[in-house]
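can u pls check wat happens w/ magnesium ion
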Amino acid sequence: MSVSDSDVDSQLPPLRRDCALFLDFDGTLAEIAPRPDQVRVDAGLPGLLERLSRALDGAVAVITGRPLQQIDALLAPLRLPGAGLHGAQLRPLTDAAVQLDDHPDIATARRRLNACKPADDHVWIEDKGAVLSLHFRDAPQAAEASRRAVEAAARGLDVDVMAGKSVYEVRPHGVDKGAAIRLLMSTPVFGGRRPVFAGDDVTDEDGFAVVRSLGGLTVKVGRGDTGAQWRCVNPAALGAWLAREAARLESADANYAATG
Ligand SMILES: [Mg+2]
């Protein structure tokens, strides 16, 4: 962790034509909602991402804890490459989808978690198949009981427990956003480019570490300690930067066409 809240840097750098852009979704491209199905997407977001994708020869991907099908529905009709469920789903091209089979230890953790989850109506399990999320956004008093429940569910299994914003997640061991970005960087669309990753949550730190190790550029959205090099205050500020860079890349294209 190298950046504290007092080091906020609002001067985000320009995007180069040879970059690969990896973007988290909730809290990064859209404000977090009380429940994942209540998130609101800015009407201009799909168009902006499409322009960036065109300017970067398709090298724009969403790296999310959600299933990719939810991202497709939120950005419709746009469909981007990406990683869902923190990398348990990978889609290196827009027309492909690869999902790991349901891990037997996740099935065990699911059974245990359903049996031991806190008896609070505001604590709920989001079953994403390869990943289990225990949400307690509306029950902050249940945070500690929720942590104990996921730890009990995961005990002795080949799974990892991650803490996010008002959520604990149980995933197959070794699945994280850093591994997902590394895998995408080995595919034709993204390979050889300079990775850029923006994210807002603890689960994005694995991605920041990998992108920094690859010489890329990392942006933390919002508050909290981070290993990212840059920071912006909220999804609207990130969107403004992306819009500025899309326009700049497009005008660079126009200049090139005019002079070349
Ligand atoms: Mg997020």
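The longest strand covers residues 159-164.
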